[in-house]
Amino acid sequence: MKQPAHDLTVLISGVALLLLTAIVYYSALPGSFQFDDFNVIVNNAKVHSWSAWRAELPSMRPLLKLSYLGNWLLDARPWGFHLFNVCCHAVNVLLVLALGRQLFAAQPDGVLIAIIAAAIFALHPAQTEAVTYISGRSITLMGTFYLGSLVAGCSGYRALRLVVSPLLFAAALLTKEIAWTLPLALLLINYLRVMPARENVLRVVPHALVGLAVVVLFFFTPAYQRLFQHSISIRPLLDNLALQVDGWFYLITRPLLLLQTNIDPELPAHPLFSTFWFAQLLVLFIVLLLALQWRQLVFGFGLLWFLLQLLPTNSLLPRNDIANDRQLYLALLGPAWMLASGLVTVVTQKLIIPFATLLMVSLGIATMTRNRDYLDEIQLWQSTADQSPTKARVWNNLGYAYQLAGFSAEARVAYQHALHLDPDMDRARINLLLLEPIAAPAK
Fold first, then answer.
1. Considering only 83-87, 145-149, 276-280, which range has the smallest mean pLDDT?
2. Spatial contact of 29 and 82, defined as CB atoms under 8 Å apart
3. How far, in whole angstroms, is CA 403 from its chain's centroid?
4. How far apart are CA 31 and CA 228, in angstroms?
5. Please, is 148 exposed, middle or buried when counting C-beta atoms within 10 Å of its C-beta (0-12, 13-18, 19+)?
6. What is the pLDDT of residues 407-435, one digit of tens each?
7. Model confidence over 306-322: pLDDT tens digits?
8. Rounded to an integer, what distance in angstroms lies between the CA atom of residue 427 and that of residue 164?
9. What Cα–Cα distance (Å) separates residue 233 from each residue in 265, 270, 304, 318, 425?
């Protein structure tokens, strides 16, 4: 009778998690279009009609653009885009719960670990950039296909493993290319489930073939060729590897642990082999050793999951931004499993529910507070300027938000401050020149 009781607990928990997600992210629905939303949606004719979308094929992230097209044709206002993002996140929460149920079935208190981890995934404020920021949909929608593929790949039904799971993997890749980690994630999951090595590898073969086919398609897609050329021109390989220490340290300490979210973080690059660079590297190395030495297998698995999910964005291939909060969306699952496992191990059974409830309330309040920053562009970039006061791009974006809202004087001040921080910032200089001149006083 234990299994049906556990299944009922998971079902009730799933309904509760959906309600919590809806309550916390209801405050995201009134938000406006922000920053990249204008380039990829509002001013992008390629997602405004079926004919334009088809004419661009083969294109970069066609399923993502298809979702934008659907939203645009139904209702071009931002609330529908926000609703879609929140629904994706809600589905992902249920998939995380189902995946955790599969992963930790043999673990003591495995059901409780799965429930607490899914709640952390649902409510952590680091998720807001992927959920509340409309352009973050590339992560949440990819996550839906990615997690769905993993759940199907862990199923006991052969058709789900051999057909549905690889097809969902292909959909994830066609939504955002960083989904290439999925075969490795499946290998890791099967290892945790103590699957024989040969069977483990054989189960991943269909995914590897699908991934290879999609990579070949990417190779012949001009947009991906331009993206790759741009990426390798950003900075040298050694410099990029050095910057990853700063990026990893920021992601772990700020949005993940301290709940300090920022859409455009001010991330000073410390010189390779400097004292502070070595100090960050040492801290990361100590955390890695402690996690791997922990007596529970869940800790090592969670850490490896975290490292794997950050590989596409924080490793060899250079990016313009060293770190963004949305990179934690799937990676956060690793620390969530680790924390959940630690809680059920350390906290007594009588206190685990109150303790977990306090944690969820704290995360939910932090997320609802952050959602308010996305209500309009001025509020978002003013909040960002408070956190990144010496980053010129932030002040330029704040100035542009003021300009769009008709506040020319405030826009002028912001543009001038951006140029004070970076005299070579042409974009701020052009924006300043395009402002209507302040009227001269009457004589």
1. 276-280
2. yes
3. 29
4. 33
5. buried
6. 999 999 999 999 999 999 999 999 999 88
7. 999 999 998 888 888 88
8. 47
9. 22, 20, 30, 8, 19
Contact 373, 380 (CB under 8 A): yes
Secondary structure of 164-216 in HEC code, one letter for each residue: HHHHHHHHHHCCCHHHHHHHHHHHHHHHHCCCCHHHHHHHHHHHHHHHHHHHH
Alpha helices, H only, 220-253: 222-234, 237-251
Cα angle value 112/142/314 (rounded, 5°): 90
Structural domains in the chain, CATH included, are: 2-234+331-372 (no CATH), 377-434 (1.25.40.10)
User: Cα separation of 405 and 411, whole Å?
Assistant: 9
Structure tokens at 198: 């040969």
pTM (global) more than 0.90? yes
Residue 385 CA to residue 354 CA, distance in Å, equals 37
Which 3-state string (H, E, C) describes 63-105? Answer: HHHHHHHHHHHHCCCHHHHHHHHHHHHHHHHHHHHHHHHHHCC
Which structure tokens are listed for 137? 């949909």
* CA–CA distance, 261 with 373 (Å, rounded to integer): 11
Question: Cα(31)–Cα(44) distance, rounded to whole angstroms?
Answer: 20
Using CB atoms within 10 Å of the CB of residue 437, give its burial: 0 to 12 exposed, 13 to 18 middle, 19+ buried. exposed
